[in-house]
Write a structure and sequence with these properties.
Radius of gyration: 17 Å
Shape: globular
Order of helices and strands: EEEHEE
Oligomer: single chain
Structural class: mainly beta
Helix content: under 10%
Number of helices: 1
Length: 134
């Protein structure tokens, strides 16, 4: 696969709305530098990616979307909230540790994704939430 010319813009955002998403990738991104509330810090991150098989780009490939999360199961963490919504149940103490929930369990699993477009300074960004294993 050849790299596109730098001035080509072929980015097509996932259409806004509610879509079926299939998790196809979970990547441990390791420790990343992040800025939170103006403070620079190091955080362990994980990336989760979904394919949206019912929505196709101009070339016929399905749309894909990814979200990075801090690797944390604190009750207020975005990863925990997303996984609990996806599973349809809250985590309990037995879900943590070596005999608990394995993040690899989401691979190949479907969920609903709610995609919202927001525009700022002429560019479009996406926000999404996931819910319900299917």
């Amino acid at each position: 696969m050849y790299l596109p010319a730098p001035n080509e813009s072929n980015f097509m955002p996932v259409p806004a709305g509610t879509h079926l998403g299939i998790c196809y990738r979970v990547i441990d991104l390791g420790t990343q530098s992040t800025t939170f509330k103006g403070e620079q810090k190091q955080a362990h991150k994980v990336l989760i990616s979904w394919e949206i098989p019912e929505e196709k780009m101009e070339d016929g490939r399905p749309f894909m979307i990814s979200q990075s999360y801090t690797w944390s199961m604190h009750e207020k963490s975005n990863l925990r909230k997303a996984l609990e919504a996806w599973r349809g149940m809250a985590f309990t103490e037995r879900d943590f540790g070596p005999n608990g929930f394995d993040i690899k369990n989401v691979l190949g699993k479907a969920c609903t994704l709610s995609i919202v477009h927001t525009s700022k300074d002429g560019s479009t960004s996406l926000a999404h939430t996931s819910s319900a294993f299917t």
